[in-house]
C-alpha cells in the first residue's frame, strides 16, 4: 500500500466502524443484568373489572427518555401482548393525555446513568410505572389512589435495572437490550401484582 494513502484509508475505516457501532443493531456481548421493583396496588369490588375479565386490549404509554422511548415501546408491545388474558397491546403517543377506554399502563423513565463504548457499557435505569383499569391516570407519584368506578384496579411503583455488558455492542443494540430487560420486569410485575385480583387484595 502506498504510504501516501495509508493513513487516510485507516482513518476512513475507523470512521466507518464508529458510524456502524452508533447506528447498526449489532450485539455480541455478555451482560450481567439485575432488576427489582416495588409496586403498590389497590382495588374496589370483589371481581375483576369487566374490561379485564375475558381477554382485553391493554393500552400503554412511554415517556421520559429520548434514548429509550422507542425501543422500550417496541419491547413492551411484545412483552405485554404475551401476558395471559391480554389479547393485544396498543401504544399511545407520549403527549396524548386523552382518557382511555382500555386499561392503561404508563411508563415514565425517570433516571438513567448511562455509559456506552463499543466494547463495554453499563447503565442503571429507573422507571415509574402507573396502571389504571379504567384508563384514567391523573394522580402524581406518592398520592393516594382515588377510585371513581367499581370494580377497578390501580397500581403505582418503581422498576429499577442495573446492567453491565462486555464485548462488541452497538449503541442501538444496547438500548434495545436495556429496553427488553426493563419491559420483561414491568410485564412480570404487573401480571403478578396488578393483573390478578388476589394480588391486589
Write a concise synopsis of the structure shown.
This protein has one domain. 32% of the residues lie in helices and 38% in strands.
- The tally of domains stands at 1
Multimerization status: single chain
The topology string of helices and strands comes to: HEHEHEEEEHH
Main sheet: strand order: 1-6-5-4-2-3
What spatial form do the alpha-carbon principal axes imply? elongated
Residue-averaged pLDDT? 83
Q: How many strands appear in the DSSP assignment?
A: 6
Distance between the termini: 74 Å
Broad structural category:
alpha/beta
Fraction in beta strands? 35-45%
Key attributes of the depicted protein:
alpha/beta, 5 helices, 6-stranded mixed sheet, 32% helix, single chain, 38% strand, 201 residues, 6 strands, elongated
Notes on the protein architecture:
It is a single chain. This protein is an alpha/beta fold and 201 residues long. The chain has one domain. It has five helices and six strands. A six-stranded mixed sheet has the order 1-6-5-4-2-3. α3 links the parallel β2 and β3 (86-91). α3 crosses α4. It is elongated and about 75 Å long. The model has no long low-confidence stretch (mean pLDDT 83).
Architecture blueprint of SSEs:
Layout: H1 3-23, E1 27-44, H2 50-53, E2 56-63, H3 69-81, E3 86-91, E4 104-116, E5 120-132, E6 152-169, H4 171-193, H5 197-200
Parallel strand pairs: 2-3, 2-4
Antiparallel strand pairs: 1-6, 4-5, 5-6
Helix pairs in contact: 3-4
